[in-house]
Design a protein that fits this description.
The structure is a homodimer. Chain A has 13 helices and 9 strands. By secondary structure, chain A is of the alpha/beta class. Chain A has 2 domains: 161 residues, NAD(P)-binding Rossmann-like Domain (Rossmann fold), CATH 3.40.50; 121 residues, N-(1-d-carboxylethyl)-l-norvaline Dehydrogenase, domain 2. Chain A has a 6-stranded parallel β-sheet, sandwiched between helices. A 3-stranded mixed β-sheet of chain A has the order 7-8-9. In chain A, α4 links the parallel β4 and β5. In chain A, α8 packs across α11. Chains A and B meet through β8, β9, α8, α9 and α10 of A and β8, β9, α8, α9 and α10 of B.
Amino acid sequence: MASLGFIGLGIMGKPMCRNLMKAGHRLYVFDAQPDAMNPVLKEGAIACVNSREVVERTEVIFIIVPDTADVETVLFGPGGAAERPASGKIIVDMSSISPIETKEFAQRLFALGIEMLDAPVSGGEVGAESGTLSIMVGGKDAALAKVRPYLDVLGTTITHIGDHGAGQTAKVANQIIVALNLEAICEALLFASKAGADPVKVRKALMGGAANSRMLEIKGDWILAHRFQPGFRAKHQQKDLNNALSAARKLGLALPNTATTHELYSALVGDGSEELDHCALLTALERLSNHRLA
Amino acid sequence: MASLGFIGLGIMGKPMCRNLMKAGHRLYVFDAQPDAMNPVLKEGAIACVNSREVVERTEVIFIIVPDTADVETVLFGPGGAAERPASGKIIVDMSSISPIETKEFAQRLFALGIEMLDAPVSGGEVGAESGTLSIMVGGKDAALAKVRPYLDVLGTTITHIGDHGAGQTAKVANQIIVALNLEAICEALLFASKAGADPVKVRKALMGGAANSRMLEIKGDWILAHRFQPGFRAKHQQKDLNNALSAARKLGLALPNTATTHELYSALVGDGSEELDHCALLTALERLSNHRLA
């Protein structure tokens, strides 16, 4: 059993930290919002005053925080992981952030003797709780070999995509498809509804053929019922598409439907719907044409 | 065993006509390109000089031709099905055409005593040959009940969506999702490739999660290998999206990603790629950013 670090005890981090404790490990934890640590502290985790202390006390440190700037703060901000050289440590960033900045972070940490892995997840809160996440890893084989036993506690599918940033790149690709497939479902069902066909029957017919998708299976019902309790929040979907577009801009790549879909999420967030499930995208298209799906 | 009419002996119509003959029926056929009839004539079908003769000789007539204007010609053009009143006949239009014009066609035929069903299919040439098409039906219950035994020869899933036009509406919804899911895959894999990750590994990781779709399963390999032999042709995908957009315009509905994707298909057709598989959409995005997927 190992001493492990865990930074970020939010919706995803809390159950992931718990699963590592249930597997018998001693967890040293930090969250910039101290209250977020309370549930795992009650179950035996040990609180640290900042990220630096987590890195001082452990060899393998997991991070899962909202966005690129949050990861940068954890790593390089005041009281951050990089405040003193720490040879032999491995930092596993499971946040979903920019693949380009991830490469830079990995280089800066490597100069300090710290190995980094990017290991974003898909599967949501349910997957985090049940330990069935899909984990996409970027970084060195040796580092992955050392942390794989812990990743096996957190997820069922661990895929080594490539070098630093490749895990985040795969996650961005995942989020592009998820959002664009949802948007496609919304356009198609709104079309059917506006043309006078029953969208429930249309969805059922479409699930039997080439139009089927995990999104149509999982979120088709939610969309038809205007059921938007999260789930995966619209503001996070917007952030992921923004990461896709800003990385694509730096790479010199045009992503036309990702761009349009990002704008629809901006409209959704502007409507105050940022905490709703990402399939609430439907309502942005409903407002656009003043037609409610029915 | 019945005498049935079949108008349109193209890639889809020929194997469908054959399956009806194999089921023991006598087929009266017509195609505006007489050579297209030869294969089924050799197998026992009876040639008619025009669509009107097909309707004169049979009670149930199947049509499968390329686009809305072709159906209009078959029904209402010179030598067309509507040239004389024909009470008690049922015309089953299995083409993929405009749902709005379909409603008009059904009304005009009804005034002549002819019942119409719209019954577009999905499943492609393979589904047509094996009799495993998915068939989406719009029109009256009584008419569907009469032709269902024949539809059961052609397909495995027959879904009655609603009244006249509802079958075409469902097919348009299907084609919106198919095209937009393909476009999403192309954007995501191009992003992964341009960011330096192996798109083969990324696709494999994504198939395990929320981004999976029938298109990712079926066409993901084709896209990664630049394998564009049809399959379902780009020009037909473009036509379907054009049907979606022109119907949506009449209905007063905005379909932003359908519009962008239609434009990408226009670029593809402009490049002379109209006979390639619809997943050749990749090449339009590759050219746009001067980056080849690899």
